[in-house]
Amino acid sequence: MLSAAGAALLILLLLPAVLMGKDRVLSGIRAYVPQMPEKAEEDPDRWTFSADKVSAQHTSEYIEATGNCTLAMGGNLIRADFARYYRETGWVLLRGNVRARWEGDFLEADEAEFDLNNMLGWLKNGRAFMAKSHVYVDSERIERKHGGMYSFENARVTRCSGENPAWSVTSARGDVTLDGKVRLYHTAFRVKNLPVAYLPYASLPATGERQSGFLFPEIGSSSRLGFNVNAAYYWAVSDEMDVTVSEYFMSKRGLMHGLELRHTEDENSRGLWKGDWLVDNTRATKEADEDDSFDDDGLTRPNRNRWWVRGKYDGWLFSPEWKTLVDLDLVSDQNYLREFNHGRSGFEASRDEFVDKFGRDIDDADSEVRTSSVYMSRSWDRVGVAGKIEYNQNLAYRNGNGDDSKNPSVHSLPELDAFAWKDSIPGTPLEFEGSAKFDHFVRRYGDAGQRLDLRPAISLPLASKFVTVIPRARVFATFYNTTKHEDTGKRTISRFNVENNSTEGGKQSRIGYETGVSAFSEVDRVYQLDGALDATRENAGKSEWTSLRHSVIPRVDYNYRHSMGDQSKLPYYDSRDRLEPEDLVTYSLTNVFTRKRQSVKLRPGGDDGPQAFMKTDYLDFATVRFEQSYDRNEAQRDDRRDKYERRPFSDFLAEVVVRPDDYVDVVMRTWWSPYIQKITQHEGTVRVHNDIGEVWAGYDLRAEVDEYKRLREDEMSIGKIGGSLRVAKNVTLGVEYRRDFEASEDLEKTVRMTFEGECYDVYLHYSRTPDDSRYGISFDILKF
Length: 784
Hints:
Number of helices: 4
Mean pLDDT: 84
Strand content: over 45%
Helix content: under 10%
């Protein structure tokens, strides 16, 4: 943040404190003469004074001292070659090598004068250093005025040490108040002694707290966007709210305007809202005009007026018990998020911030449907209620790509939910749970109306020493009131389920049920290891694994849902409206390895010094799971037997998760087909990391599959590797490489370098993808 360059000026606020305490006049005077004690009695609220030579009389108007003049109060200290103190006015004049230490901060000056009674004064040819935030301020004259305001002339502010700092901000004049507000006039930002930016006026922060100011711009170049600069101004409106205004210049596309609002009313509320708008220099009235990576989607982008509005909110309404969540995501066209996906205003930065601060993601950049919603909920011990309003923006019907009057997108306005948490039924061994969902569906084209879906369920836990069995049953009761019916022709529910839209309209209902049973057990064995430690001070900081527990958890789940016949006469809004029959057995075997570790720690002791004690902790450091399903309906299927043979067994899943300590993570999931005798899917990553860097590698595979129950036409084989390494004390290098082995194409090559200076950080990056090459540089001179 460029505004951070002025941060050090707050140190000037501490100047009078160096010369004053609760009693603002000198409360004790002594000279280093033989008849006086070498040390005065300590008093943290009184200034004491010493010097090689003191000249004072009872009738004198002032006291003069020369040679090693020292003023002290508590841990604060001031030294000078010459000092004159005026008794009546409390005025102190200091000359020659003025040095001061005040609460960890340091001051230097040729001359200084202060009225300790009225807290007024000035510093001539002075330097202030704030140790906590590592900020230096040099000025010809600093004056303290009434109201706690300081003014200065010809000042230089920097966080770099030395006479020729790497960067600094100079100002012809300015002022700073006790709250840290700094105003500078006729300022220049300098690299070494070279001025690189001028502003007639700047308001800069003087502390590490949130304060208004200009953010340092992001500078880069891209084959898609051209040379680009993203500059922003940060406005700290209040302790609970701030606003960032940005201007993003792209030589090939134009000037994008951005606005960001953040607010936090209390510990239970937070909001983040962003909006960007661009009048694009380019258009794509036909697919041939578009970026090559956007071909074959059947959509064009003829609009120049482009924008993206997004935001999230976590809070409450009426009372903190009524939790409220808001998700906003609206965009001008289907290509916006794919084109503007990097940098401060890009898709990736917004997505990462939403996930980090709210724990909720947004739709992928290439999704043609953007979802916005408002959700409210409240829970009690046994029940809960919720309500939602959801709007789905379908980008395939924007900018002339589709007839908006034929847009089939469904919106819930509103959705109301009630839940009964699983709980025992008094007087019985049974447990009950259930849900009720009411939706009022609105759409421009297609069926619309209301739906009430009830799903009560009971279960009977039966536990013994060796096994737990839980039979269960659930009822589906769905009631429809279709207020608008339009014959949209055939609709695809699943691959081989294409039905005519024969909805009759009016009131309809559907009743169904499902049953099932789950059975699981757990056996374990504990292995004692040789590792053992004595709780002694010599062993402090050491740790050993003392035992290993291996748990084996077999589990079988069976679920049966009866066939509900032809449901094509019912409206279709989402997957709840079509309940397919199910007769499925799933069996799994999970192995969990848990280690017990004992560590020797120290705690404060008595006269014998720190005392050693043993601390024990446990960690599930490895999990190995195997799972497969058997579909009894598929085993009896007669449909399309001429092309698709029966394959009732699902792919065999093997999953391995290893996290033995804080330095390594291994996650592997592999699916193997017993019919085609090969791996159909794999997801795996390995990460090793410590204080100086990390290395990670991964491989994702999806094979082509054509079966009755599933179709996957495109194969995927993507490898990725990357890492970072601190190659020097202040230099970190990072690389990332992704390759599509199926297409024999590099997906991404990225190189990053971070240089951490004493008073600034520099970030360099270069990235190349099939559709774009970009590089950039950014700086951080805040570092508070």
